[in-house]
Amino acid sequence: MDLGLKDKVALVPASSSGLGRAVAMAFAREGAKLAICSRRQDAVDEVAGEIKSQYGTDVLSMDADLSNKDDVDKVLKSTLDTYGTIDVLVLNAGGPPPGTFDTLSDEQWYQAFELTMMSAVRLIRGALPSMQSKGSGAIVSMSSSSIKQPIPNLLLSNAIRAGLQGALKTLSDEVAGQNIRINTVIPGRIRTPRIVQLDAANAEKLGKSQDEITKASESAIPMGRYGEPEEFAEAVVFAASERASYMTGGVFQVDGGAVKSLW
Ligand SMILES: NC(=O)c1ccc[n+]([C@@H]2O[C@H](COP(=O)([O-])OP(=O)(O)OC[C@H]3O[C@@H](n4cnc5c(N)ncnc54)[C@H](OP(=O)(O)O)[C@@H]3O)[C@@H](O)[C@H]2O)c1
After folding, report:
1. Residue 27: CB partners within 8 Å, gap ≥ 6?
2. Dist. CA 60–CA 173, nearest whole Å
3. Is the per-residue pLDDT at 10 higher than 90?
4. Residue nearest to atom 25 of ligand 1 (CA)
5. Each residue of 86-136: pLDDT tens digit?
6. Rounded CA gap, 183 and 80, in Å?
7. Does the Cβ of 227 fall within 6 Å of ligand 1?
């Protein structure tokens, strides 16, 4: 199936590893031109090298801390200076730290707000004018199953991602008439370096093997396994594509059946 993404410009942030990396690779496979970034220039350059050698598409790789306004502005400016447009904007950043209500300071709340909410707001603000002048565009937010079913010990993520989803749903209504679509794809538990590290940390804390922890976690998922980053990436690329031309304001889960809610 031709997804209609050839030569489209896709900005995929937080893409040196995990889900962001897989999404960037999938856009490259479709022939899109990429702008990618993360805090580690060497790591994101490595991904750019893989993209170029595997798919031969243009890639701009930048270092940026997405919780920092100046860095986000720099990413937007470099992308627009290089390609002249942004056709697809992916919203992705590292997750906020874990914690329960009584353990989190004001500083941690503000920092998580900058990372999860304001990075998205600033990226959209910077990319929207180019989509509006072109008369088309797609924004895909990479969120979490926590917007449907809050996850224990992830209070910041639960609170701020849900707030962001409210903002995106509102905005999707405002820009739908301009042929700009906004959708959200939510991972359940996908086998990225972060998930592997979390399992290792839990194993150490509980005095069990990492394999035991992973197997227990997988057994709670109806499909009986973690997802692979590439499986998640396919949904993001489809939501951004011309084949999803009448889909906007939606939330699509890639979770092996883990979320228990109806909607
Ligand atoms: N994997 C899952 O099952 C799952 C489930 C629910 C939600 N999520 C969410 O999905 C997102 C991606 O998760 P992942 O599993 O792919 O994590 P990951 O494997 O740890 O990758 C995170 C990526 O984000 C970048 N990053 C982190 N903080 C950043 C910052 N402040 N500025 C710029 N880049 C930053 C990292 O690169 P640098 O270190 O180079 O900056 C890395 O490329 C996270 O928000 C996570 O909470 C994941």
Report:
1. 5, 10, 12, 34, 88, 237, 240
2. 31
3. yes
4. 14
5. 999 999 999 999 999 999 999 999 999 999 999 999 999 999 999 999 999
6. 22
7. no
Place of tokens 């993520």: 157
DSSP 182-228: EEEEEESSB--HHHHHHHHHHHHHHT--HHHHHHHHHHTSTTSSPBP
In short, whether 189's Cβ falls inside 6 Å of ligand 1 is: yes
Q: Best substitution site from 12, 25, 38, 142 to test ligand 1's pocket, by max atoms within 8 Å of Cβ?
A: 38
Interval 127-141: pLDDT, tens: 999 999 999 999 999
Partnered with residue 89 across adjacent β-strands are 11, 139
CATH number of 9-190+228-254: 3.40.50.720
SS3 12: strand
Amino acid at 71: D
**Pairwise CA distance, residues 147 & 177, whole Å:** 26
From residue 127, give the alpha-carbon distance in Å to each of 45, 133, 149, 171, 202: 23, 11, 30, 13, 39
Q: Domain segments of the chain: what residues?
A: 9-190+228-254, 191-226
Tokens of 99: 């914690």
* Per-chain mean pLDDT for the chain: 97
